Amino acid sequence: MTKKYLIGVDLGTSATKAALFDLEGRLAAEATLDVPILYPQPGVVVQDSEDFYSTAAQAVRACIRESGIDPREVAAIAFDSQMAGVGAYGEDLAPVAKFDSWLDMRCEPFIRQLEKSHGERITELTGCPPTCDHGPKILWMKHEQPENYARTAKFLMPGGFVAGRMAGLSAEDAFIDYTYIHFSALSDALKGEWSAEICEAVGVDMDKLPRIVPPWEVIGEVQAQAAQDFGLAEGTVIAAGCGDTAAGALGAGIVQAGMVFDTAGTASVLAGCTDKYAPDIENRALLTMRSVIPGLWHPLAYIAGGGQALTWFRDQFFNAVRGETQPEEELYAAMDAIARQAPLGADDLYFSPHLTGRICPATPEMRGAWIGFSFSHRQSHFFRSILESVAYEYAYYLNILKQLIPNLSLTEARAIGGGSRSALWNQIKADVLGVPYLRLDRSEFGTWGSAMIAGKAAGIYDDLAGVAYEHAKPAGDPVRPDPDRNLAYQRHIARYVDLQATLADSFVRNSEH
To answer: With 0-12 CB in 10 A as exposed, 13-18 as middle and 19+ as buried, what is 286?
Structure first.
């Protein structure tokens, strides 16, 4: 039977999304299911690995049912998943313990320990400074749950677990693809392999780490039980897949050096695209991950609640005052209209968007702040300062990137997420960064990125970068930066960066008393 479809599944933190695409990238069906996040006691955030498998199965079955296609027409399936949490599994890939979420900070003592003893070397080799990710979590289990550590055959990502279960893999064949390994604190990212040097130095058993593969490697085929669970045909090709950020970048066509990827969602994530590996050893602000495309890298950083700050302002200071019930899009349009009344730079009012702590560089003690307001400032200034703060933070990231790769020429920024619908915010970002801003004409990026990887694994797509770029169509003309406004913003960027340093010192000092 002719193969006509591909499936991409995004195993997110709070939801699983599955999507069925035809070979031209057109969406045929999609389904989303919530994934429980468990808080068994204060400070503990875990998930059940079986929920990853069951929600993926239900979502894929829903896509097959909704589309009405013959399952034998599906050529391949691939998964992307959350990247910094880690799961422990036995010889038959049965979970040894609950999945340790990236939101769980029990490993914090081991983050500090790794930073103190090997921080610079880990950053140099992995592309990422020690943070709340695989290495510290593995060490936490080794020291705090030694019985579970001893029972663990392999530490895996959710995508590796679900795909491995579907293919009937043993621990010996378990895998991780190379887009995750910057988050391991245990890898040599440039070589694409585990670092014996670091593993030995920090005390992690290398035999508990899975083999590292490219995203499109065929790791197996759908077995009988999985075929029944997922509504797929036995023998359907399963690709290794990749991390969710990498899948989103591929789905958005971020496949050329100099492109920038802005995920304007709950978190505000800015990722560059370079053809050089340049870890940020000095600032520890940028996390450098491998792109799905060989030879390309995504230096990235993010504000944990960047987009969420807009929702907070809407609910606490805008709509609460107006007392109106309006559709969300109308509310944000009204907020944008008010922000337009304030001048560039919001009359020297600055907002710190790190309401739950700064991620890059790691300063968990930080909180939000407004600095410089007086009786002359109005609601318009306060909201505009939030929009501008995210742009200033992005400028800080890109200035570091330009120092690391001086000859890098930034060509365009591609924006996705709810915040990308704000023409004003896109214009502010374009003016601050000096880079044209494009919105993309599709809503599903991670699942489409995974589906393309499945297509390459099945031999349908040869030039993955070409397919990704071709199918990432802009939604209208780019928002171009204004040179005069870009020049005027330079003073505000410098002031913002200085204020962030002052705030960081203050919050850290305060936490020590």
So the answer is: buried
Using CA atoms, how far apart are residues 419 and 309, in angstroms rounded to an integer? 11
Residue 109 and residue 64: Cα distance in Å, rounded? 46
Tell me the per-residue pLDDT of 476-498, one tens digit each, with 9 for 90 and over.
899 999 999 999 999 999 999 99
Report phi then psi at 132, rounded to 5: -80, 80
Do β-strands 46-47 and 74-81 pair in parallel, antiparallel, or remain unpaired?
Answer: unpaired
Q: Exposed/middle/buried for 58, CB within 10 Å: 0-12, 13-18, 19+?
A: middle
Q: What is the pLDDT of residue 305?
A: 83
Q: Find, among 2, 11, 4, 159, the residue nearest to 67 by Cα.
A: 4
Ordered alpha helix ranges (H), 46-157: 49-67, 108-126, 134-144, 146-151
d(CA 152, CA 168): 18
How far CA 453 is from CA of 124, 139, 247, 461, 465, in Å, comes to 29, 32, 9, 8, 10
Q: Which residue, 421, 434, 417, is CA-closest to 487?
A: 434
User: Does pLDDT of 50 surpass 80?
Assistant: yes
Backbone φ and ψ of 360, nearest 5°: -130, 110
Q: What tens digit of pLDDT does each residue of 350-391 get?
A: 999 999 888 888 888 899 999 999 999 999 999 999 999 999
Structure tokens at 186: 């245990």
Say if residues 435 and 409 touch (Cβ distance below 8 Å): no
Q: What is the pLDDT of residue 330?
A: 85
Task: Supply the pTM of this predicted model.
Answer: 0.92
Place of tokens 């498998």: 53
Contact 353, 370 (CB under 8 A): no
What are the structure tokens assigned to 68, written together? Answer: 């009405």
pLDDT of res. 477: 92
- In contact, 158 and 102? CB cutoff 8 Å: no
Question: Residue 177's beta-bridge partner residues?
Answer: 213
Q: Which two tokens stand for residue 131?
A: 């943070």
| C-beta separation of 318 from 347 below 8 A | no
Question: What are the two backbone dihedrals, phi and then psi, of residue 293, each rounded to the nearest 5 degrees?
Answer: -75, 120
- The answer to whether the Cα torsion of 505, 508, 511, 513 is positive or negative is negative
Q: Are 155 and 126 in contact (CB under 8 A)?
A: no
Q: Which residues contact 71 (CB under 8 A, 6 or more apart)?
A: 64, 227, 231, 232, 233, 236
Cβ neighbours of residue 325 under 8 Å, at least 6 residues apart? none
Q: pLDDT, tens digit, for every residue of 257-311?
A: 999 999 988 889 999 999 999 999 999 999 999 999 999 999 999 898 888 899 9
The set of residues, in sequence order, having a beta carbon less than 8 Å from that of 371 and lying 6+ positions away, is 349, 350, 351, 352, 499
The Cα–Cα gap between 385 and 376 comes to 14
**414-440 burial, b if ≥16 CB within 10 A, otherwise e?**
bbbbebbbbebbbbbbbbbbbbbbbbb
